[in-house]
Amino acid sequence: MSDARSTLPEIETLTGPFYASPDQLGAFEPVEPGDMPAAYRELLAHNDHMTVAVERHHGCQVDVGVLARQVTGEHYTRKIVLTRQTDGMVVQFGIMRIDFSYVPAAVHEAIESQSAPLGRILIEHNVLRKLELATLWRVTPGRELGDLLKMKAGDVTYGRTARIHVDGQPAIELLEILAPVE
Question: Is the CATH number 3.40.1410.10 carried by domain 26-178?
């Protein structure tokens, strides 16, 4: 009998193109929504795009900054930060892994152009999509992630893994980690 969770995004799969071990990014502990501070729960415990959630929370649009990317066959994986347009502050770190065989060519081109956050691209292209929350995480960042999110050693934040189905197909896997939330 197979475990349905095994088909959901795994930290190792998402971090693998950029880190020898997920521990290099940070320590991940699964949590339930009720075990998270309210602001993090509001931003993470839902089946909507994080682009929409962080823009609503911060009261401005966000830009995407691509830190690294890898293309293997039909899979495109990128490590990113989302920054507020108002002041350039990093509000989220993420890793996205997409199977381009499941998305229209115009969406493929827009994603590879690296000019807008994924959520905005999917919304603007009116792609039929369904986001499936997989796991909520309590994250103690490693050095690189801590530096990106402006966190001190030992501080914690929260994140999630999720999958986006495009036209009913499991096209996109996500790891999304928030910068400290006020």
Answer: yes
